[in-house]
Design a protein that fits this description.
Domain JmjC: 111-269
Number of helices: 11
Helix content: 25-40%
InterPro entries: Cupin_8 (IPR041667), JmjC_dom (IPR003347)
CATH topology of the largest domain: Jelly Rolls
Order of helices and strands: EEHEHHEEEHEHHEEEEHEEEEHHHH
Largest sheet: 9 strands, mixed
Number of strands: 15
Protein name: Cupin-like domain-containing protein
Distance between the termini: 56 Å
Length: 338
């Protein structure tokens, strides 16, 4: 049995302590968004919350996924990982919501509206369901809607505040260091962006994935009701199950890093291109270089160099970041010309 996530009760959404929003471990904030009108509508009925959302429909086509009943709500790859077990569609938000309402039987096809920007598809929603605390963080706000669905364990770079407004959701969470025990699939060919665990959490194949037992020793679980919010730190693995006929989640995500910083995933791609396949002795050399300059920088890194001559060894700032990026673009351009 997974351990429950730490819970905090009785907080005001507009006076959340910063240390909670930036927690390095998941925290479940019970009832944080209970006063939102959308939560009140959801507690009335599924029809009431759908009618509430339709008030804000921008009429822009939304992307949604469908999967046959046999996959039991698990949006995933096909058997040989050359494709997926679901189909992409585009259609009006209101019509898709009605389709989800009609697919309420447990054996119905799975229907899922993935991350959709609130301000694009439901303009005006945030004016009534206010959470100003994250405005200073320049966050993105998205909505996720579906019937009974399962999203494979994955991790995201931004910090995430996930708020359940309708239905029930179960998050199963793992620390970042469980990467090897989750049997992650391809990096560049994925169902929705991030690489995902290949383990079926409802029916684990321990013969194929024996280390998953070790991952479960570190798992945390958050069972969420309407009004609950989950602080999900950057790069924590999370498997998400939607447990009712209609499930709606609103999330806010942001990065604390300066805007001039690029995604570390791009650095990972470059390291795979330029370092991973070097001979072992050369990889060990570069491991030490990365330790010295990147992972454990200190006095030995730059104090022997005059301050004005340290270049990229000095603390990063916007102009220096632009200069480094320009040099990389020039290098990539020259490489492409070869």
């Amino acid at each position: 049995m997974a351990e429950p996530v730490r819970e905090v009760h009785g907080l005001d959404p507009e006076s959340l302590p910063d240390d909670l929003l930036r927690s390095t471990e998941p925290v479940l904030l019970r009832g944080l968004m209970s006063s939102w009108p959308v939560v009140q509508a959801a507690r009335e009925s599924d029809r009431a919350v759908v009618d509430y959302l339709r008030r804000f429909d921008s009429k822009r086509p939304v992307t949604y996924l469908t999967a046959p009943p046999k996959v039991k709500g698990r949006f995933f790859y096909n058997e040989d990982l050359t494709g997926f077990n679901f189909t992409y569609h585009h259609g009006p938000m209101s019509a898709t919501l009605e389709q989800i309402l009609r697919a309420s039987h447990p054996s119905a096809p799975a229907i899922y509206i993935g991350s959709s920007l609130l301000d694009v598809y439901l303009p005006g929603f945030r004016a009534e369901n206010v959470f100003e605390k994250t405005a200073e963080l320049q966050e993105l706000a998205s909505i996720w809607i579906g019937n009974r669905t399962r999203i494979a364990a994955h991790r995201d770079l931004p910090i995430n505040l996930a708020c359940v407004v309708s239905g029930r959701r179960r998050f199963t969470l793992f620390p970042p260091d469980q990467l090897a025990n989750l049997y992650v699939g391809p990096i560049e060919f994925t169902p929705a962006g991030p690489a995902i665990s290949l383990v079926d959490f409802h029916d684990p194949d321990y013969a194929r994935f024996p280390r998953f037992r070790e991952a479960l020793e570190h798992a945390l679980v958050a069972d969420m009701q309407p009004g609950d919010a989950l602080v999900l730190p950057s790069m924590w693995w999370h498997h998400v199950e939607s447990l009712e006929a209609l499930n709606i989640l609103v999330n806010f995500w942001w990065r604390d890093e300066p805007a001039y910083m690029d995604s570390p995933f791009n650095t990972l791609k470059l390291a795979m291109l330029n370092i991973r396949d070097l001979p072992p002795e050369q990889r060990r050399v570069w491991q030490e270089i990365f330790r010295h300059y990147i992972f454990e920088p200190g006095e030995a890194t730059h104090d022997h160099i005059p301050e004005g001559a340290r270049g990229m060894l000095a603390p990063m700032e916007e102009k220096r970041a632009r200069d480094i990026r320009s040099s990389l673009v020039e290098s990539f351009t020259n490489q492409l010309k070869r």
